[in-house]
Every structure is written in structure tokens, then in C-alpha cells.
Amino acid sequence: MVRSFFALLCSLFSIASFAQHVNIATGHWPPFMDENDPDKGCVAKLLRDALKLENIDVRFEFMPWQRAYIEGQKPRYAGTAYWYFSEERANTYLYSKYPITYEVNLFYHLKDNPMTAKNFSDLEGKILVLTKGLTYPKNLLEIIAQKKISVIETTYTTQNLPLVLAKRGDVAILNTHTADAYLQTLSDEERNQVVAHTTPAFTMSGYMLFNHKNKDIAEKFDRAMELLFENTAYLEEYQKRCPPLPSSPPQKQEASVL
């Protein structure tokens, strides 16, 4: 198993000098996509390794998420990474066959500002911190409109927890791995003020989105992902930083509320 993992790495390096070069638009979402990480995040590494198997070298360009979605449609880019499923996006982009993340999202709030949220309706009266361009469940957005829940929209997800700490917002929704990454950047005093609600908000799978001009690259990516899924050692290495991936492609659907 270890031998096969190193054989894969050797094959990746051996083809690099002959690679086609593509750009992928993305946003900062550690540990998955991380502008400050040498690998640019664990999902970025997965994307890079998969496409290298098809002689394609990747350059990630980081920008606000909303802009990354728009830029990914332009000829300069192969697409954008990574996004949860939505019917609207499926009409604009080609979704990868395989998910590249599986995430559980939680409500984060201050200890001295407790909340009881068995469903989204319980957010009434709270100020919710969301990020422009990210995907949220339709029923959450409907309840926000129906209950007239106040929302602060940030440009970068790095702004969400600081707004909660500053008491400008009451609740932020983040996946557990990303929240942990952000919490590590806070002081002990600040970190001890923030708690995650025990009831998860929703689950989602993330996908690579290819623009329609790059259908051939999308097909190559799907083929390469099948090879990586067969490599147990590679997946074990991936899961040291990112949540485990399903062994077979699940049906694409919008956010699943727990």
C-alpha cells in the first residue's frame, strides 16, 4: 500500500514537465482551500494531484467567492473550486462526477449569547452572519425572508467569527474544519468565548466546477479521481487534513438539513 502511494507520487512528478497548464478560480476556505498553505489547502492538493495524472498542471487564483464563481466562467479559467450543489449552478457549470469534500456545518455563537435552534425558524430575532457567494439551504433562505431575519453578508469567511466576537452578529454558520482553522488564529480568550451549537445546521458535499469550454478537462478529472479513489494510501493521507470522502459518487442534491 505504501509502495503504491509512492509510485503514484513518482508518476505525478515525472509528468509535470510535459503538463498542460490551467487556472482555477477559488476562494479562501481553510483547510480545504488555503491561500497561506504551501499546498493551497487539502482540496487544492487533491485537485492538483488528480489533474497531474492527466498531464494537467494547475494554478489556483484566490479571490472573493462571489467573484471566483463569475471568473470561473471566463476562457482564462478551466473552472472554479469548489462549490456545493445547486440547480442554478448545474445550469451554468459542469459538476465533477465525484465530490471532493463532505462537510458538516454548525451554528457558532458566543457563550454569553446562547441559542436554541432545533430548526432554522428558531433563528428569528438573531443576526445571522453569512458570506456572499456561498451556498446555503433553500429553506434557510426562505425562512430568512419569511421571518425577516437580519443578515450580515461578508466578502470573506475570515470576517464571520470576528463579527460574532464583536457582537455585531449573533450566529455564524461554518463547517467544522473551517471553523477550527479560524479559531486557531484567535487568542485563547477569544477562542474560549465561541461555542458551536450541538445541533448541526446542515451537511453538504463540495464539487469541482468546470466551465463548458473545458468539458474535456472535466472528463479527464473524473477519470483521474477514479484512480485516486482506488489508492487507499493516498486517501488516508488526504484524510489527515480533510474529512473522509464517500467511496462512490452520491446523488447530487442541495444541502441536507440534519
UniProtKB/TrEMBL annotation:
Q: Which UniProt keywords apply?
A: Signal
Q: Which residues form the signal peptide?
A: 1-19
**Family membership noted in the UniProt record:** Belongs to the bacterial solute-binding protein 3 family.
Q: What is this protein called?
A: Transporter substrate-binding domain-containing protein
Q: Which organism is it from?
A: Pseudoalteromonas xiamenensis
